Amino acid sequence: MKILKQTFFVLAAATLAQSCTTTPSGEEGKLHITTNLKNTNDTVVVIVVDADKVQKGEKLYSDTVKATNGQIDVTIPLTHACNIALLNMKNGVPVGQMPFCGVPGEECQISGDWQAEYFLNGSKFYQQFNEIDQAITPIHREEVALVKECEARMAKGEVQEDIMKTYQLKAADIQMRMQNTQMEFIKKHPKNEACVTLLSELPADKAMEAINMLSKSVKEGRMKPVVETVRKQAEKELARIEAAKSIKEGNVAPDFTLNDINGKPLKLSSLKGKYVVLDFWGSWCGWCIKGFPEMKNYYNKYKGKFEILGIDCGDTQDKWKEAVKKNELPWLHVFNPQDEGDITSTYAIQGYPTKIVVDPQGKIAKVVVGEDSAFYTYLDELFK
Length: 384
What we know:
Layout: E1 3-4, E2 30-38, E3 43-49, H1 51-56, E4 62-66, E5 71-77, E6 82-90, E7 93-102, E8 106-113, E9 117-122, H2 124-127, H3 129-155, H4 160-188, H5 204-213, H6 216-219, H7 224-243, E10 257-259, E11 265-267, E12 275-281, H8 286-301, E13 306-312, H9 317-326, E14 332-335, E15 354-358, E16 364-369, H10 373-383
Helix pairs in contact: 3-4, 5-7
């Protein structure tokens, strides 16, 4: 599948458009990568983006490889199928990213151009992308052409609103045709392992449907880690969409129990009888951190009139506790796990920070997404 510079980076990998001969599979437990890419700088960093390790806060495997005339040759340890990212480095800073699905025991050959299209080829798994490439690359190119068309119109000084109307109309059609093409391909090729790299490009409902179309040998074989990662994400998104129907002002806030910073369970309903602000945040969220000084000001300004319950999301427990201490946050805190017990779907969280005000009767009084002054205006109106 040809990947173009303008498109979003996804789990799906790319493949050579031209035909190729089969190369011997690599060693079991290792992935052999070679490249021949234009606009390659002197150094390329290879990272194994293992979702399980990311979730647990473990260190990811990475290797810095010297490039000669756009070529690198590296063998990396790989115990199961997961995402790989190549970073084109310049003065220690990545100026290009190239993600693809890495599979142990395979040979991956990458050619093309960092600044345009790149292609994957090699042993059996990567050759299977040739079929996918033929089906979806023309549509990808339409998307890129549309972006260039809009950029050219903006450069000429056309009204931005008119350009956006054109883009949204055409982009919606391109997206629909892309999804239909992807679904049809999976339906016709359920035993093609490379089909799993299309799953993350589909909306949640389509992804679940596509997973059910895959053969048991693909779902239960070596691509199982990739399939299960997408399945969990899709289930979470579907739950969030369903929850969004009830997370509205005037409705009862769903009760939950999470462990506080001392490891003791804290139940939301135990705070009933007072106003409670549920603050969904993470140490990785710049806007969350930026908003803490004003939150502390208002916490002191209306001390005793409301409570804040900070709900950390997307961190390890160590990073969470470190951030609470570093930012000197005086309110209550609980840790939201990323797997079992995650409440971000229950509360339909779409962005960070999200602040949900729960009234003394346990009903949702206000929902504010992002670091917005509207939250503080609401507190002023409520407590003055």
